[in-house]
């Protein structure tokens, strides 16, 4: 007998958000407005993190396009592929927020490398590390 899986309410919501994103206008300013609106919906502690991530990505990789991805702030390359994203802890009732890098990020290192970081605060050391990661993620060498 085949095992059936049921999606949680949060997963179903993320899928619906993704469908709406695909239908949305592809104008860069509208996409960024959608990101800022999603950030504004987050609990305050997550807003602080998401705004800082947004600031860092815009400064270190201004050519990436801010857009929502499954209802999360994300940043895509010229081909429309997600490079980096922010997932607030409240998105799926996690104990920490996550800064993640998708397949388009150039972070490959040997045969195994991290693609996601748990984050509860972005101090100077974490900001420095994130800036370095974003720069590496978009490097074309």
Count of helix runs: 4
How many independent structural domains? 1
N- to C-terminal separation?
A: 50 Å
SS elements, strand count: 5
Pfam family, one: DUF1801
InterPro entries: YdhG-like (IPR014922)
Domain YdhG-like: 50-138
How does this structure look, described?
The chain is built from four helices and five strands. Helices cover 43% and strands 18% of the residues. Helix 2 packs antiparallel against helix 3 (44-60) and helix 3 (44-60) packs across helix 4. A hairpin with a 2-residue loop joins strand 1 (65-69) and strand 2 (72-76). It has helices spanning 9-23, 28-41, 44-60, 124-138, and strands at 65-69, 72-76, 82-87, 97-101, 116-119. The chain has a single domain (9-138), classed as Aspartate Aminotransferase, domain 1. The chain is globular, with a radius of gyration of 15 Å. A five-stranded antiparallel sheet has the order 1-2-3-4-5. It has 141 residues and is of the alpha+beta class. Residues 50-138 form the YdhG-like domain. Pfam families: DUF1801. InterPro entries: YdhG-like.
In short:
It holds the Pfam family DUF1801. It contains four helices and five strands.
Jot down its keywords.
Aspartate Aminotransferase, domain 1, 5 strands, alpha+beta, 5-stranded antiparallel beta sheet, 141 residues
């Amino acid at each position: 007998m085949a095992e059936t899986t049921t999606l949680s309410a949060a997963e179903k919501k993320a899928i619906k958000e993704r469908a709406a994103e695909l239908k949305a206008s592809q104008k860069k300013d509208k996409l960024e407005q959608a990101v800022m609106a999603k950030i504004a919906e987050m609990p305050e502690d997550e807003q602080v993190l998401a705004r800082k991530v947004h600031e860092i990505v815009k400064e270190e990789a201004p050519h990436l396009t801010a857009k929502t991805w499954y209802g999360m702030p994300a940043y895509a390359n010229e081909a429309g592929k997600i490079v980096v994203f922010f997932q607030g802890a409240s998105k799926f009732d996690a104990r920490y927020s996550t800064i993640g890098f998708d397949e388009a990020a150039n972070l490959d290192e040997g045969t195994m490398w991290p693609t996601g970081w748990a984050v509860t605060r972005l101090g100077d050391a974490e900001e420095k590390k994130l800036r370095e990661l974003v720069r590496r993620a978009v490097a074309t060498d």
